Amino acid sequence: MGDLPVPRTAAGVEGMAALVADPTGSLLAFDYDGTLAPIVDQPARAVPERGAVPALAALAARVGGALILTGRPALDVVRLGGLSVVPGLVVLGLYGAQRWPPVGPTGTAESGIQAVLDAARDALDPLLAAAPAGTWLEEERAHYRLARSLLEAGDPSAAAEHARDCIAVCEANAAPPFELYFGHAVVAIALRAAGDMAGYAAARERALACYAEVPAEERQWCAQEQGELGAPS
User: How far apart, in whole angstroms, are the C-alpha atoms of residue 93 and residue 19?
Assistant: First the structure.
């Protein structure tokens, strides 16, 4: 494979082989924060690493499609990252609730997103079961991201289920309040969307109890959930 990275898992080897065998039939998907751009204290300063955008543009021109899935608003990521130069790039923002380029006046994408969510849900459990020890943080955040995507797709019951999985992983690994907060917050938001106001109130109380223990310098990352919970950030 020349200078290509060497995959560390059987699934990675299989995926790399499929990509090399049929690049134009492949879709490559990336996160923004922590993948194209480093994790930084101030989210507005999370610009891509030097050379990342030209590399993505060159890659996108050689494969069937390139996609970024992020919790940020789609247009914010495009502007912050200077991603409009990447040919054929699709950015799914707010965990799949927004699409850039937009398909309608609000940028909300209906067609195609549910298929992505269904595929992610079907693939998540076997991938996590095969993950090496020590990857609990990735497992927890995978459940969180899928919960947010399912919530935006209008399936609050499934969203609450994956948010509870997120909490379970955190509790099994003595996670700090920062990580637990997001699971409890999304459970509350999902239960409210499902009409379970008693469950919402209880989950909201647990989320806010976790938030009270989050260090001040980390609270900026909780602003979206705090706003949805109707609580000060």
Answer: 25
**Residue owning tokens 């923002």:** 93
**Residue 163: Cβ within 10 Å count:** 29
pLDDT digit string (tens) for 144-155? 878 887 887 788
From CA 132, how far away is CA 113, in angstroms rounded? Answer: 29
Measured CA to CA, the distance from residue 98 to residue 68 in angstroms comes to 11
Give the residue numbers marked as catalytic: 31
What the chain holds in terms of domains, given with CATH numbers, is 10-100 (3.40.50.1000), 114-229 (1.25.40)
Q: Are 181 and 214 in contact (CB under 8 A)?
A: yes
Two tokens at 192? Answer: 């409210």
Model confidence over 51-73: pLDDT tens digits? 999 999 999 999 888 899 887 88
CA-only gyration radius of the chain, Å: 18
Please report, to the nearest 10 degrees, the dihedral formed by the alpha carbons of residues 54, 57, 62, 63 taken in order.
130
Question: Which H or E run contains 10?
Answer: helix 10-21
The single-letter code of the amino acid at 43 is: P
d(CA 70, CA 66): 13
* Closest by Cα among 83, 81, 93, 72 to 45: 81
